[in-house]
Structure formats: C-alpha cells, structure tokens
Amino acid sequence: MDFLPIFTQLQQQPVLVVGGGPVALRKIQLLLAAGAKITVLAPSICAEVEALAGEQLNCLYQRFGQHEIAGYKLIIAATDKPAVNAEIYQAAQAANIWINAVDDPEHGNFIFPAIVDRSPIVVAISSGGNAPVLARRIREKVEQLLPQSISLMGQFAARCRDQVKAALPTIDQRRDFWERWFSGPAQQLIASGRQQATEQLFQQQLADFSPNQGEVYIVGAGPGDPELLTIKAMQYMQQADVIVHDGLVSDDILALARRDAERISVAKQAGFHSLPQDEINALLVKLAQAGQRVCRLKGGDPFIYGRGGEECEALAAADIRYYVVPGVTAAAGCAAYAGIPLTHRDYAQTVQLVTGHCRANGDEPDWASLAKARQTLVVYMGLINSTTLTEQLISHGRDANTPVAIVENGTRPEQRSVTGTLEQLPALINQHQLSSPALIIIGEVVALASNLQWFHTVAAKHSTTEAA
To answer: What positions does the domain Siroheme synthase central occupy (predicted)?
Structure first.
C-alpha cells in the first residue's frame, strides 16, 4: 500500500494551517471536530474562518516564514501556490513535522481520507490521492450501509468494555461475546431508545455467556458476482472462525471473509465429491461442538439445490444453533445477467426449477409437466444429462424449436451465454465446450436475450439459433 491508514489523537494538540480560504476552511472544520488547537497563518483570512476564532483557533495575519513552526504536531498547507507549498514542505521535513499539502501530494507525507463519521466509529477511505472522486463515491455507499445507530452501539460498548473485561478473562472469550452481542437484537433496541431493555439484555447475555457455544451460519454466496452478496452474508463471513465453502464460491468472494478464519474446501464436481454430504454434515457438527463459529458458504441459495436443508437437519439433531442467510440463486442471477426474464406476460407466466442430478433410484421427473409450453424451465447441473433432457421434453410434447440458453459462469466477468433451440442443446454444449458451472434455460423468454443482453462479457457472445 502507498499509505498506511492510521488514526491519530489530536485533542488539544497544536496544528498549523497555512492558508485562510475556503480550502483551508474545510480542513479546519475537520481538525476542530478532532479537538485540535489550530493556528491559521495567512496574509488574508476569509470571514468564515475568522468567525471560528476562539479558544481552539487563533488567526495570524502573516506570510509563511514569519512564524516559528517548531512544536506543531501537524502542518496543513492549504494554499494554491506550489512554490509556497514546496517551501512549507521543506521546512516541515527539516523540523520532523508531518505535513499535508491540499491537492498537492508531491509536497506532503500524509493525506486526508474521505470520512464516514459515526463516532466513536469512524471509517476512512483513501485512494492515495489518485482518485478522490472515486473515494467520495465509496464513502457515499458506506454512508448508506451504516445507520446512525452504529454510533450509539459504539458508545454503549465503550461504557461496558471494562465490565466485559472483568467478567471474561481471555481475549478470545471477549471477542466471542462482542461478536454475538453485535449480531443480535441490540442495535434495534438501542436505535429505538429502549435503554433499560438494552441494559437488561446485555446483563443477561453476559451472565449466560458460554465460551464453548459454537454455531453455524448457512450462507448463500450467490452465483458468482461478489457484489450480489447480501449485507447479512458479509456480516456472518466476517465473524466466522471457520469458512466451509463449496468449489463454486469464487476467490473474490472468499477474499471478503474474515482474514484469519480457517478455510475448508468441500468442493463438489459432477461425478466426484471431495467430501460426501454426510461427512460435510458431520464436519459442521464437529466444528460447532468444538466452540467454533462456522460459516457454511454455498454457491447460489442454500435452500435451492444447495442441500442446505440436509445440513440444517443435521445441526438441529445435534442441538446446534444455526442461522440461514438466503442468496441470489443461479436461476435469478444468471438469467438476469444473460438478459432473459424468467417470466414475461407475453411468453411465460410460470417458472419451474429442476436439477439434472437426483438421488440414485430416485423418482423420474414429471416430464409432462416440465414439457408444457409458455413456461420457463431452468435446469441446474444439467450438462451431463442434456441428451436425456432434450429427448424426454420433446417426446412429451415440447416443441423442438423452443429457444434455449446455456449460461456458463453466470454473473462473472468470464460469463458466456450460448443460445439455440431445444433440439440443438446437446450439440451446443459440445460445440462450445461448455462446462460447469452452467445453467440451462428453456422457454420462449430466451428469444428476448438478443435484445435485452446488457452484461458485457469478456468472451464474445455466441448464438447458433437457426431458422425453423
């Protein structure tokens, strides 16, 4: 990184601001909020700055060089003259004083980040001075994510910190307690002003705290694009001690998990399971019983062909607390990124989600129902059995010219969307060498893809649709 982000204590610390115009005013307001004692040095000082003069701010109507800089903790060069900034920078370096030159990073050694202030919680975003507009846009997104009640949560935690430290002797226990406290109903109670109820809940949870109480978060990671993760998914990924993840969960998504969390891959591929489902269930139980907080991170949605229900059954049988976080399922994500509306009043009023893989000796699909016209059929894990799928649908009445799409790596930069007709499906898969993860979409709505395609992919768009 080009700059190390740090937070410095400036209460009653002397800071020199060189310049007295609107740019200086913005920096002065930040420094006043941090409690600094400010000296403003400039031949002329604007009225807005002069109005702030008082115990915390002193105005000196002088040029730089006419005032001794020794003893200041920071210097802010808020002039629009590079030569003056260079003079200030050289003097500050000689005196071992940190300096910021506004909009002139060449003559400074620290920068002001974009700030989200929920004191005592403060978030700083920086582009190293290279893209301040981008940093501001990121700050706006963070502002939307953090409710004002976060400030009250931080203040409550500050008041209770010593009490928790006295009750729980180890760092791990205290961290575990605070993780559970912040992920519970406390924020809603504090935000609604219910101080007595908040205090009662806090005392109860502290008294009942068990350091070996593991739990599991069954989290949907979506179809691939990290920005499709939910806020709650991110929260649980950040507080888990262990991440148990599928192979379909991308490295970009895993990078958003808590950095020091252990990562265990239970990747599954067609025809090969690195860990059978029963053993995955047992692993989740074992980790939770050892007192770990486990994030079971699954591609798509846990309860749509994700076997999340089976894992919850195992956890419930072992009396382990668990939470379920829905994710954007592949049907919704891949179809949207391929420009295919799953329903459309002119083409399809119903949607069926089916899997190309079933349990051994399982019941046959209801082919007559699946073959109905004017509906959208979305097939998960259907590449291997595409020939059977095509033959059965056509033999049960589905038009051989029904539009189809195969979406490979949906929502990711390398997404490919190949379109054609139902009778061409197996040939399309072979011709374009499509592989998992891929989703098959069958129905009249696929014909809209050529006009509604909005997601620009790395690979060229393929279309092999032929005239009937």
So the answer is: 123-144
The more confidently predicted of residues 71 and 271 is 71
Mean pLDDT of 381-390: 94
Which secondary-structure segment (H or E) carries 217? strand 215-220
Strands in 312-363 per DSSP E: 321-325, 350-355
The whole-angstrom separation of Cα 155 and Cα 147 is 14
Question: Which residue numbers belong to the known binding site?
Answer: 22-23, 43-44, 223, 299-301, 304, 329-330, 381, 410
pTM: 0.65
Q: Which residues are annotated as a binding site for NAD(+)?
A: 22-23, 43-44
- Which residues are 426's β-sheet partners? none
Alpha helix (H) residue ranges in 216-352: 231-239, 251-254, 277-289, 308-317, 330-337
In this structure, the answer to whether residues 375 and 450 fall within a common structural domain is yes
Which residues are catalytic, by number?
246, 268
CB burial of 177-190 (b: ≥16 within 10 Å; e: otherwise) equals bbbbbebeebbebb
Tally the domains of the chain. Answer: 4
Same domain? 238 vs 294: yes
pLDDT at 129: 79
DSSP letter assigned to residue 270:
T
